[in-house]
Design brief:
The complex is a heterodimer.
Chain A lengths: L2 E4 L3 E5 L4 E3 L1 E4 L4 E8 L5 E7 L5 E3 L5 E5 L4 E6 L8 E9 L7 E2 L3 E6 L1
Parallel strand pairs in A: 2-12
Antiparallel strand pairs in A: 1-4, 3-9, 5-6, 5-10, 7-8, 8-9, 10-11, 10-12
Chain B lengths: L3 E4 L2 E4 L4 E8 L5 E7 L6 E7 L2 E5 L6 E7 L2 E7 L7 E8 L10 E2 L3 E5 L1
Parallel strand pairs in B: 2-11
Antiparallel strand pairs in B: 1-3, 3-8, 4-5, 4-9, 5-6, 7-8, 9-10, 9-11
Classes of the chains: A mainly beta, B mainly beta.
Chain lengths: 114, 115
C-alpha cells in the first residue's frame, strides 16, 4: 500500500514572500513523484516531476522541489510568489511497478495576498 | 500539440437523461484516463485505457460507461446518474505501459451537474 500526505490544507502567503508546501509519502516500492497545480475552474497542470537522478528538481513558473528518500518527502518551494500563484497544489505518487495509477495527496490551497 | 481537450465544458442533466463526455488528444499517447473530482478534493481515478483496451476500472458504477473508439479519443457515457455524481470530470493521457514514465497530461474538465 502507499499513501501521500500533504501536511497543510491551506497556506496563506504574502506576495513576494517564499512558500514551501510539504508532501510526505509512504510506499513499499520505488516511486515517481509529481507536483500538479490546479487554478480555479481548470484542469491540472504538471509543475515538476522526480523520476531519478538529481534530488533537486526544477519546474515551471519558478517552482522547485527536493526529493529526500530517507525522510520520504518531496517538498515544493518557490522563493517569491505572485498573486497568480493562488491555486490548489497536489502532490502525487506513482509506483514504478504500477503505471497508470497516480495517487494524489489531499491538496494544499495557496492563497497569495498583496 | 500538447493539449488534451474536453467537451462540453459544462453539462446539466436530469437523472433520466443519457449524455456523453468527450476527450481528445493528439500527442500520440496510448493511455487515457477518466478521473472524477469533487469540490475541494483530489481527483479520483475511474478508468484507464491502454492501447484502446480497458485496463483499470476502479469499481465504478455501471451508470458510467467508458469507450475508447481510437487512440486519440475517449468517451464517457452517462446514464441514470444520481445528484451525488455531480463533479468535475477530468480526462488525462500519457505514454502507455512499457514507456519511460507515466507523466499524465490533463484536460480542463467537464463540470457536470445532475439535477
Amino acid at each position: 500500500a502507499q499513501s501521500v500526505t500533504q501536511l497543510d490544507s491551506q497556506v496563506p502567503v504574502f506576495e513576494e514572500a517564499p512558500v514551501e508546501l510539504r508532501c510526505n509519502y509512504s510506499s513499499s516500492v520505488s516511486v515517481y513523484l509529481f507536483w500538479y497545480v490546479q487554478y480555479p475552474n481548470q484542469g491540472l497542470q504538471l509543475l515538476l516531476k522526480y523520476l531519478s537522478g538529481s534530488t533537486l528538481v526544477k519546474g515551471i513558473n519558478g517552482f522547485e522541489a527536493e526529493f529526500n528518500k530517507s525522510q520520504t518527502s518531496f517538498h515544493l518551494r518557490k522563493p517569491s510568489v505572485h498573486i497568480s500563484d493562488t491555486a490548489e497544489y497536489f502532490c502525487a505518487v506513482s509506483r514504478t511497478d504500477s503505471w497508470g495509477k497516480l495517487q494524489f495527496g489531499a491538496g494544499t490551497q495557496v492563497v497569495v495576498t498583496p | 500539440d500538447t493539449e488534451v481537450t474536453q467537451t462540453p465544458k459544462h453539462l446539466v442533466m436530469g437523472m433520466t437523461n443519457k449524455k456523453s463526455l468527450k476527450c481528445e488528444q493528439h500527442m500520440g499517447h496510448r493511455a487515457m484516463y477518466w478521473y472524477k473530482q469533487k469540490a475541494k478534493k483530489p481527483p479520483e481515478l475511474m478508468f484507464v485505457y491502454s492501447y484502446e483496451k480497458l485496463s483499470i476500472n476502479e469499481s465504478v458504477p455501471s451508470r458510467f460507461s467508458p469507450e475508447c473508439p481510437n487512440s486519440s479519443l475517449l468517451n464517457l457515457h452517462l446514464h441514470a446518474l444520481q445528484p451525488e455524481d455531480s463533479a468535475l470530470y477530468l480526462c488525462a493521457s500519457s505514454h502507455a505501459a512499457g514507456e519511460f514514465y507515466n507523466e499524465q497530461f490533463f484536460g480542463p474538465g467537464t463540470r457536470l451537474t445532475v439535477l
